[in-house]
UniProtKB/TrEMBL annotation:
Protein keywords: FAD, Flavoprotein
Source organism per UniProt: Streptomyces longispororuber
InterPro entries: FAD-bd, FAD/NAD-bd_sf, RIFMO-like
Keyword Flavoprotein included in the entry's annotation: yes
Coiled coil spans: none
The protein's name in its UniProt record: 4-hydroxybenzoate 3-monooxygenase
Length: 393
């Protein structure tokens, strides 16, 4: 098989890239190792920056998001049993975020691709990217039990952290930067209306807790747990008891309990692979970078990469190679800003297992600074709601 752009991975990055190329008249083939049901139900992120929501709208994938997504104008920071609101529009000149689950973003993009786009093959596992530094890169993949080859003008590696495309960048060219954290997130879905109308990020001596939501009737909650925790080690009642302790306030606020419908543990990791381009192989999304989830940046970065890469590939097809040449450096600036913010939010809200009393006091002073200083709050609000996607970004 032959195509202009071979896209590995049908997560948000690969699906949006395929959609944007299609609307510009450029052919692509998407190879996805898992089946459709798996991709559409895998629980992950839920917060869209304004730039992400705008990009989905511009791609023609915003209709259901605009109907069912929930606009949020702030978050609550909770520490020392008190609540402090961060109001986004007043701090950022009008910006907000949208609560709309990654599962729904993927469902909408898959439906569009199936209706109007090029081939999207589920159960097609990329094995290797070959000849990336030549004019004729190829993807070797397995589909329906047979090994096949996809010949391309460009290959987009959108295959997530555990994909194969990153390995095609020779070690002499690649540099990686990494940090792992001594804690993970135990995440649950609960069939109960969220106990607060905005997200609550809570710092507690027992560890971080987050109250989020998927819809007006479904809550999404997270607890900081030690790295390597088995989700089965926590009973439903233990999870609710722990959430209640960490979210407790001095006022009359109460946590509503309900049946848990999903439970999983996500490790926390920071990772960047440089550069994002090797010859005609371009990396986008989690294939090139991971952030710890505290700042809700992973999905938004993946969408930003896809928008920038689509613009660059469209320009290259029209005879202007400059945006493609600038893709890696332009995006890495954004990536490192997201790494900085995600790391800072993680440090602000989690309790390391070896925290000293001095560390605790310092962390509370940092939170107090955010709660009481407008400039500190504005800095958080600007990073959380995201820089607009502009120009070549
Ligand atoms: P992915 O969504 O990972 O998509 C990559 C796709 O490539 C997958 O469908 C995969 O099956 C496919 N693939 C992999 N290897 C191959 C291969 N060899 N051949 C073909 N296809 C392949 N972010 C937040 O902001 N908040 C969160 O709460 C949050 N929770 C997360 C929980 C988990 C468990 C994980 C893993 C991530 C979470 N993230 C979260 C991060 C966010 O979901 C990701 O940043 C986002 O999914 C990145 O999109 P992507 O398209 O780059 O990669
Ligand atoms: C969610 C995940 C995040 O990482 C975050 O910061 C906020 C919300 C969520 O899954 O709802």
């Amino acid at each position: 098989m032959r195509t202009q752009v071979g896209i590995i991975g049908a997560g948000p990055a690969g699906l949006l890239l395929a959609r944007l190329l299609h609307t510009a008249g450029i052919d692509s083939v998407v190879l996805e190792s898992r089946d459709r049901a798996y991709v559409e139900t895998r629980q992950r992120a839920g917060i869209l920056e304004q730039g992400t929501a705008d990009a989905l709208r511009a791609a023609g994938a915003g209709e259901r998001m605009d109907r069912e997504g929930l606009r949020h104008d702030g978050i609550e920071l909770r520490f020392a049993r008190r609540r402090h609101r961060v109001d986004f529009p007043t701090l950022t000149g009008g910006r907000s975020v949208t609560v709309y689950a990654q599962t729904e973003v993927c469902k909408d993009l898959i439906a569009l691709q199936r209706r109007e786009g090029g081939p999207l093959l589920f159960g097609a596992e990329a094995l290797a990217v070959e000849d990336a530094a030549t004019d004729r890169p190829r993807v070797r993949y397995r589909h329906r039990g047979r090994e096949r080859v996809l010949e391309c003008a460009y290959v987009a590696g959108c295959d997530g952290f555990h994909g194969v495309s990153r390995a095609a960048v020779p070690p002499t060219v690649a540099r990686t930067y990494e940090r792992s954290y001594p804690y993970a997130w135990l995440g649950v879905l609960a069939a109960v209306p969220p106990s607060h109308d905005e997200l609550v990020y809570a710092r507690h001596d027992r560890g971080f807790a987050l109250l989020s939501l998927r819809s007006p009737t479904v809550s999404r909650l997270y607890l900081q747990v030690p790295a390597g925790t088995d989700p089965a080690a926590w009973s439903d009642a233990e999870i609710w008891d722990e959430l209640e302790r960490r979210l407790e306030t001095d006022d009359a606020w109460q946590l509503a309990r309900g049946p848990l419908t999903a439970k999983s543990v996500t490790p926390l990791r920071s990772f960047v692979h440089e550069p994002l381009r090797h010859g005609r192989l371009l990396l986008a999304g989690d294939a090139a970078h991971i952030v710890p989830p505290t700042g809700a940046k992973g999905l938004n970065l993946a969408v930003g990469d896809a928008v920038a890469l689509a613009r660059a590939l469209i320009a290259a097809e029209r005879g202007d190679p400059a945006p493609l040449a600038a893709y890696s450096a332009d995006r890495l600036r954004r990536v490192w800003q997201a790494e900085r913010f995600s790391n800072a939010m993680t440090a602000l809200l989690h309790r390391p297992p070896d925290a000293t009393p001095f560390d605790d006091r310092l962390q509370l002073a940092q939170l107090d600074r955010v709660a009481t200083c407008r400039a500190a709050r504005a800095d958080l609000a600007e990073a959380y709601t995201g820089e607009p996607f502009t120009g070549g970004d």
